[in-house]
Design brief:
Blueprint: E1 2-7, H1 11-23, E2 30-36, E3 40-42, H2 47-51, E4 61-63, H3 64-67, E5 73-77, E6 80-84, E7 89-92, E8 96-98, E9 101-104, E10 108-110, H4 118-121, E11 123-124, H5 128-147, H6 151-157, E12 159-163, H7 167-187, E13 195-200, H8 211-223, E14 226-230, E15 233-237, E16 241-246, E17 249-254, E18 257-260, E19 264-266, H9 268-273, E20 279-280, E21 284-286, E22 292-293, E23 296-301, E24 306-307, H10 321-340, E25 354-358, E26 364-370, E27 373-377, H11 379-412, H12 435-454, H13 463-481, H14 490-494, H15 498-503, E28 508-515, E29 519-525, E30 537-542, H16 544-554, H17 558-581, H18 585-602, E31 605-606, H19 611-618, H20 630-641, H21 645-649
Parallel strand pairs: 1-2, 1-9, 2-5, 9-23, 11-18, 12-13, 12-18, 13-14, 21-24
Antiparallel strand pairs: 3-4, 6-7, 7-8, 10-19, 15-16, 16-17, 20-21, 22-23, 25-26, 26-27, 28-29, 29-30, 30-31
Helix pairs in contact: 1-10, 5-6, 12-17, 17-18, 18-19
Length: 655
């Protein structure tokens, strides 16, 4: 049995474990163990959203037991004390772990550059706990300020400094500036009492961006009420003050909360490993082209811990999410080659596609594209790309489950319009208002099914006349109007001569378009336009494949016709009952949409019944949770559904 040990459940560690599982599928002679001090994985790039109340804390947290459900990965919760590279043993507080191959993916930690008081008095933003702690601190600051009687002390409490104008600092400052008006409203405070500062020794924000985009970030922060202090160092941080230095002069200022985002270094474990392995640049470990530690080919370095300059590049790989993702893929491949003894190891040749930064939930900048060909995006597209990249991230970590969770947190339940789409997709309408619509839609379907029973649909074939009458109706009107691809303008019809009215006495063809040379979309009226109602207008979508199915496999056979009729009747009655009682509303609404689409493609559909399509869409998600049996049934079904192995393995469930 060969033992692969992965230290760290960050992005690089989790992806390495998942990708290696896939490559070694079916092998029982390899044990993969992932060790971390926490039972969850954290999406570090979205910490600022939790800290500033935009999304709930569970949006960035993913339990390791759920990530690796159904996969041969042993998750161990332990604090690693050290690594014996000669004996190939990792020592933890709970025991020792021998390995044949080791992946060091322990990530990074904040670095304070020797600034006095920073570690003890500043709030960091580099972990799930940091985000939750800072969120509580910000809320408590406004709560205390609302109770404070001394105006000077109230202003001090509401003075916030963000140290660092890189990615994390800018995003935290923007998110805080966006949150401040809502906190002020909640606690009855004037916005003018709050002071926000973003401080950095560098001369521009997010220096990895082109200078023009850095300027846009700075101007956006200023517009949001953040005073940006560039070229300004921090010398000391106290419990209620911060000491700044600019041009050799120091200034002590009062501060209520200082948030430290000024830089990172490798984790303590990586620093310790660097005493044996070759390291540099704040503890990062030097690697060869295959991401192995020189002198220890069984040790692989992943993610932020890598210090490697790819061939043709002038700089080491950056400590970014994309580096974590691509290094995990290379390490998994090379490990599989080493373990199986087959295949050729591959060099690490990452291709980075740019960077994005958000300043609050509604504004962002991006410099993206192909390697060597990057371009800037306008704010809306920048935010779109940022969310798309996050979805790709979640697909790889927890698939469908986390994608839906992300969409829910970022768009469907977002409050205060803190999204680049505003609040347009947020669920603001009370769900109980949909109950009458759901019940009425169900009654209409029930009526349709019962009437078909009365008409004898369960006893004898009816579809030939049913489809034939509808087709004859459309063909007669189209023939009277001329040929296809001719649009009859409403104004022209209204002013037509009496002879033209006689010609079109059987109806009016408003349009009949051929789409892509294959589909036909037709709208007709059974009466003259001037006297038509919605019940006179019919829309048909001619789909040749469906037409072939009906004419070749259904209509020639009475038995097939009868089977289809029984199916339609049962489906309509079942849909009706389910919607009336609010049970299994999602599949019932989905089947309602399927039947409506089938009718549009075969017989056409009168516009007066189109409301049933939109009603089915309206009650599709959660329509039965209010005053319906889904209130009781769905939690019961959900609990049992999540117990199914393949469901847990492929994350086919909602939280």
């Amino acid at each position: 049995m060969k033992h692969v040990l992965i230290l760290g459940a960050g992005y690089a560690g989790v992806l390495t474990a998942k990708k290696l599982c896939r490559k070694l599928r079916g092998r029982g002679d390899v044990e993969i163990t992932l060790i971390d001090r926490n039972p969850y994985h954290t999406m570090l790039t979205e910490l600022h959203e939790v800290a500033a109340h935009r999304v709930e804390e569970d949006s960035i947290r993913m339990d390791l037991s759920r990530i690796f459900a159904g996969r041969p990965v042993r998750v161990v919760l332990d604090e690693i004390a050290g690594i014996d590279f000669e004996q190939k043993i990792v020592a933890g507080s709970k025991g020792e772990y021998p390995y044949d191959y080791l992946v060091l993916a322990s990530g990074s930690q904040p670095t304070f550059f020797g600034v006095q008081g920073a570690e003890g008095h500043a709030y960091t933003l580099w972990s799930y706990d940091d985000a939750v702690t800072l969120r509580e601190r910000l809320e408590d600051s406004f709560r205390r300020a609302a109770r404070e009687r001394d105006p000077a002390e109230r202003r001090r409490i509401l003075t916030f400094y963000v140290v660092g104008a890189g990615f994390t600092g800018v995003e935290m400052a923007g998110e805080l500036a966006e949150d401040v008006p809502f906190l002020c409203e909640r606690y009855g405070l004037e916005r003018s009492l709050v002071s926000l500062y973003d401080v950095d020794i560098l001369e521009r924000t997010v220096p990895i961006l082109p200078e023009r985009l850095s300027g846009k970030v700075e101007r956006r922060l200023q517009k949001m009420g953040v005073e940006v202090l560039l070229g300004t160092g921090v010398r000391e941080i106290g419990e209620d003050y911060i000491v700044l230095e600019r041009g050799g002069e120091q200034e002590r200022r009062e501060a209520g909360t200082v948030i430290w985002t000024a830089g990172i270094e490798s984790s303590a474990l990586t620093h310790q490993a660097g005493e044996t392995l070759k390291n540099a640049r704040r503890g990062r470990i030097e690697t060869d082209a295959y991401l192995r530690a020189p002198g220890h080919e069984e040790v692989y370095i992943a993610g932020d811990n890598i210090l490697y300059t790819p061939r043709g590049s002038q700089e080491p790989v950056p400590q970014m999410v994309e580096n974590c993702e691509q290094s995990a893929d290379t390490i998994a491949h090379n490990l599989a080659c080493a373990i199986t003894g087959s295949g050729e190891p591959e060099e690490y040749r990452p291709k980075f596609h740019g960077v994005m930064v958000s300043v609050g939930g509604r504004y962002g900048v991006a410099h993206v594209g192909l390697p060597g060909h990057l371009f800037a995006l306008p704010s809306f597209l920048a935010m779109f790309v940022k969310h798309f990249i996050n979805l790709v991230y979640f697909v790889q970590v927890m698939g469908y489950n986390k994608v839906m969770s992300y969409l829910r947190h970022e768009f469907f339940t977002i409050r205060r319009c803190r999204s680049f789409l505003g609040g347009h997709f947020s669920n603001r309408t009370p769900s109980f208002l949909l109950v009458p619509l759901r019940v009425w839609l169900g009654l209409c379907w029930l009526y349709e099914g019962v009437m078909k029973i009365v008409e004898g649909w369960l006893n004898s074939p009816k579809l030939t006349g049913f489809f034939g009458g509808a087709n004859a109706f459309f063909q007669e009107i189209l023939s009277s109007a001329g040929a296809r691809n001719v649009t009859a303008a409403v104004d022209a019809v209204a002013s037509a001569t009496s002879s033209a009215e006689e010609t079109l006495s059987s109806g009016v063809a408003l349009f009949s378009y051929r789409i892509l040379g294959y589909f036909d979309l037709t709208l007709v009226s059974g009466s003259e336009v001037a006297s038509s109602t919605l019940a006179d207008y019919a829309l048909k979508f001619d789909f040749p494949l469906i037409n072939w199915f009906v004419s070749t496999l259904v209509l020639p056979y009475d038995g097939v016709q009868l089977f289809m009729q029984i199916f339609i009747v049962v489906a309509e009655i079942l849909i009706g009952l389910l919607l009336v009682f609010g049970l299994l509303t999602f599949p019932a609404s989905g089947l309602s949409l399927v039947l409506q689409f089938m009718f549009v493609c075969t017989t056409g559909l009168y516009l007066s019944t189109f409301w049933m399509i939109f009603a089915a869409i309206a009650v599709l998600i959660g329509g039965g949770r209010t005053l319906g049996l889904d209130y009781y049934a769905m939690p019961w079904l959900k609990e049992r559904w999540q117990r199914v192995n393949f469901v847990r393995k492929w994350y086919l469930y909602h939280d």
